[in-house]
Amino acid sequence: MIDTTKYCGPKLGGVINRFMADEYRLSDIDATRYVGPKLGGVINKLLDDSPSKDLGIKMVTPFTLVLVALLGLSAVVGVYRIIFGIGAASNLNDLWPWGLWIGFDVLGGVAMAAGAFLIAAAVYILNLKKYKCIARASILNAFFGYLLAAISITLDIGRSFVIWHPLVMWQINSVMFIVALHLVLYLTTLGTESSPMVFEKLGWHRALSFVSRIMVGAVMFGVALSLLHQSSLGANYLIVPGKLSPIWYSPLLPYHFLVSAIMLGLAIVSFETLLTAKVFNHTPPRDVIEGLARGGIIIGSVYLVMKIWHLVTGPGVGAVLDGSFLGNLYLIEMMVGVILPLALLSLRSVRTSLERIFAVDIMVILGVLMNRMDVGVFGVSEYATRAGGDYFPSFMELILTAGMIAFAILGFKFCAKYLPLFTESDH
């Protein structure tokens, strides 16, 4: 372990050393001494990590320090972008107005959040109780995914300070207004669905009882919002038939976005369940993982049929077999994210192996994220290049994206340590 007293002095370095050795915890701090008995008592309860001790979560690790450094650097870049404008911080231009922040952070982040409405609907509407053990983690993951999308949109628009305008200046004929409204409403809904963890930790029984009574209604509202939001992101691109490559452009693009988001949602829930089981020292529920894999086969098959139908009735199969850059991207996207996963999951030996399912989950995640980048960035490259445009993400764009991913990981880890995220049956 690094001796930080050499760099920060004996006092501060000693505290950092104790944190890194896991000898000093936030729960050791008595907040009532600094902010009074009421607020301090609430903070003390939230920072009590005794319920999660058996998970073995260490907040100060080399990986965590890297995440904190990325988060700090991205905060500096974010302030720079707000002060000096989007042109100074990005390589976006009039011919290429949407780039990494929209293609990956928004389209990808929202798609990765689809698992929340699927699991919430399974548990609270369909009463499939076996999935309840992963409901809180799935919803929390979606909350951070939508938060990432909200921050990215705020930074991506030219005048970030007027991001609140759609809330009071309605334009019901604009699909962008629908997207903005869905984002705000569903982020609020995810916060409501996640609140029982906080109320349970604080012992606020009346608030917990109230949220429990409205949970089914909140979940139904969230499912409707998520279905509309996933498809409306695809609907954004219906207005650019002359710009988006025919390989991806289709009148059915909203449905392509929705079905692929459901496929990704199942994979990301399976992925995070297996990953957190390994990192946070609890046993993954095998029947749940295998059930998600079976669902992935069904949804993946539907998506594959939709994509084949689009090729046959649209640009033709030859459009993706001509050796072009976009054709090759399409083939990689489909092979990695759809065809290989379906072929592997059709084998019983894969469906019953948690390690192999984990590998398939990674393939699906990469494939669908690549689809969002293909639609949002690469798919318009031919048009933009012919018009004289060019784009590659700037260093600041890359740093901000990395920082927001770091924020999501840190937030999830913090919640796992200080909130009842995993039920006792999973420990």
Structural write-up:
The chain is mostly helical. The chain has two domains: 48 residues, no CATH class; 300 residues, Formate dehydrogenase/DMSO reductase domain (Formate dehydrogenase/DMSO reductase fold). Helix content is 70%, strand content 0%. The chain has 19 helices and no strands. Helix 7 packs antiparallel against helix 9 and helix 15 packs antiparallel against helix 17. The longest helix is centred in the middle third of the chain and has 31 residues. The protein is globular, with a radius of gyration of 23 Å. The two termini are 29 Å apart. The mean pLDDT is 86.
What would you say about this model in short?
This protein is mainly α and 427 residues long.
Outline type: globular
Number of strands: 0
Our count of helices gives: 19
CATH architecture field of the largest domain: Up-down Bundle
- What is the CA-CA span between the terminal residues? 29 Å
Task: Specify the helix fraction band.
Answer: over 70%
Low-confidence stretches: none
- By CATH reckoning, the class of the largest domain would read Mainly Alpha
Main beta sheet = none
Cα-atom radius of gyration: 23 Å
CATH superfamily of the largest domain: Formate dehydrogenase/DMSO reductase domain
Let me know the average pLDDT: 86
What is the element string, with H for helices and E for strands?
HHHHHHHHHHHHHHHHHHH
Oligomer: single chain
